Amino acid sequence: MSNRPLSAAGRSVPLLRAGLIAGVVLAAVAYPLAAVTGLGAKATAHAVEHKTNILRTALPAETSYLYAPDGTTILTMFYEEYRQYTKLSDMSPNIQQAIVAAEDNRFYQHSGVDPKGVARAFVANARSSGVSQGASTLTMQYVRMALRDSAQTPQEVQEATQQTSLRKVKEMRMALDIEKELTKEQILERYLNSAYFGHRAYGIYAAAQIFFSKTPATLTPVEAATLAGLVKSPSEYDPLSSDQKEATGRRNYVLDKMTQLGYLSPDAAAVAKSEPIRTRPTTPANDCAAIPNKYNTWGFACDYVKNWWSAQPAFGENRLERMDKLRRGGYRIVLSLDPKVQAAAEKNVGAKDRVDSPFANGIVVAEPGTGRIKAMAVNRTYSLDVSENGPSSNPEADPKMKANYPNTVAPLLGGGTLPGYQAGSTFKMFPMLAALDAGMPLSTAFDSPYRYKSAVYDGWAPSNASGAMTGRQTMWSGFGKSVNTYFVQLEEKIGADRGVHLAEQLGLRWRTDVDKEQASPAKAKKWGAFTLGVSDATPLEMANAYAAIAADGRYCEAMPVNSITNRDGTPATYRTAGGIEREVAKPRCRQVVNADAARAATDAARCPTGDTPAKGTCGGWSTADSVRRTVGRPVAGKTGTTDSTRSAWFVGYTPELAAASFIADPDNPFNAVGDGQSQVPVNAVAQTLRDGLKGTPTRQFTPPSDAIVG
Fold it and tell me: Pfam families from the xrefs (predicted)?
């Protein structure tokens, strides 16, 4: 059946110019201020023309969706106004007819402004000495909603909705202009995608979902009439209220109007009016805390997507603008996690176990060559509800402050504002890589006593963890055994600032005041303790930094998504400083050190894991010699512990994946995890690499050249 009333079928009823003029004159009488200000004022005409141009292309705010890596499973949504734009062809004729019947039964006869409606409203308002009846057509209502949705400032929102005669006349003029540019079907489609139905349902897709858990295409006459009746007053006619009397009355009114217009037969309307309103409400997910329980551990990755998004200039000038785009832009975002690797990470840090311990054990896995994040897991439940959490372990915290376990949404894995955790000897990679990139060979040797007093660093005298490390060491053995006194001497040769600068190039950021000061140009040359990992870092940063070494020195920014598409299905893009347009979700990589230096660093980094380097010798023992046996394929990495084992780390990588794991107390960095738990991150990384790569071909590291071996 056609959407047009039967009385108008097969004929067009164009408005005479005189009728339009009469309508506007009546409007001017009904709204005296318009006559005072002058309908033909030049400034007003220009403003109306400008806004009409905006409305031709304006689209309402639309919900953004976060998908699992399969690109079809919805994890959650981001919105201020829950809305999904729906084409008219995907809407039931019932809702199209019901909204015309409820709001503008002469929609197909007028050209944007209805002179009969204006006259009727004028008479009614004159009799009541006030505004008892409106004259807004569907087109005029659409204009008002579109101006509201496209407003950039609070003042523009107010101007679009304020009850003044000047606003009404401008609205009429724009409605007349819009009807010259858009078909009735286009206007109806836009209207149904803009209207508010209550319960945060903006547009017919959201309304059908929230009230009936179905799509607009399947709405029955009863459901359509119920929804159409809501537009006039969503709260008064709310069918989800305990008393449906008002909602039923309004629905029946709409059904009667549909009958008068020939959309429903009297018998069908009578049957429909006899039915109760049967709702099936749905509460749409919003933000990361609403991720389904099945994917609860993915909440930390979702949270990182938001933090990453807020730092992307492609989505706005500042954080506020970018987050507004996320919640209003209608994006389709596909998460980069690999379900197999994620499952392995979750299992090996106990992410799904209820943990009654202040010590967080987390892991991040990155892909060398792309920077895509393949896993993020920590032994915590992602939840805003901390009511059952115990008191914080920090003795200086407020006694009422809750601990971070078992529930938290804090970005414990990185990507937020938390500084991270001291990473210990995993930092030895940075001065070693800087030395190799500067031309020093792997065979560079130093006599490494138990304690070494540095003349360069003002008499600073670090010692080794064990007397067994004493002796002449090379990069292979010094790295494999984690010999502090070797690396202090290596750092002296190249300058501590070069190691600091290289760490920055590999994505590390200094967040505490102490780290910022020490990393500053004025202090970095004297930051000898940098090589021992006294700075805070996050597992996200460390996994991505080591991934660059696995990728032959090519660093890629951490990327939590596989793709981002606009509401029209095109890839989201940004323009580089050089004017090149690129997709936001494409890897952003750059060569940080030469490939041979990275390969040499990997050769030395095979020593801590119990693997065999291609060109040198590890010196007989290593700090994590179980890793190679567990992973079962070539693997490199580095252990790290801090003073009194307040935190423990392991960062490991194969040619395919790089993983960083830590164990520490996020609430109290002085709460030592103890030597007994230093193996926890070693096992987490080794087992995750093993499980995540199971069934995939074994790849070999590329050996360094003889020139850099020395």
Answer: Transgly (PF00912), Transpeptidase (PF00905)
> Is 390 in contact with 283 (CB distance < 8 Å)?
no
Would the pTM count as exceeding 0.85? Answer: yes
Integer angstrom CA distances of residue 129 from 22, 76, 123, 125, 126: 22, 51, 10, 6, 5
Strand partners, 333: 66, 564
What CA–CA distance (Å, rounded) separates 162 from 168? 9
Q: How far are the Cα atoms of 586, 598, 695 from residue 633, in angstroms, in the given order?
A: 29, 19, 12
Rounded-to-integer distance, Cα 456 and Cα 694, Å: 48
> pLDDT tens digit string along 173-203?
999 999 999 999 999 999 999 999 999 999 9
User: 245-260 and 266-274 are packed helices; what angle lies between their axes, rounded to 10 degrees?
Assistant: 170
| Cβ–Cβ under 8 Å, residues 74 and 191 | no
In contact, 685 and 382? CB cutoff 8 Å: no
State phi, psi for 407 to the nearest 5 degrees: -105, 140
Q: Are 94 and 102 within 8 A, CB to CB?
A: no
For residue 443, count other CB atoms closer than 10 A to its CB: 13
Distances (CA, A) of 100 to 121, 168, 253: 18, 21, 13
How does pLDDT run across 148-176, given as a tens digit for each residue?
877 667 776 666 666 677 778 888 999 99
> Which tokens sit at 707?
């020139």
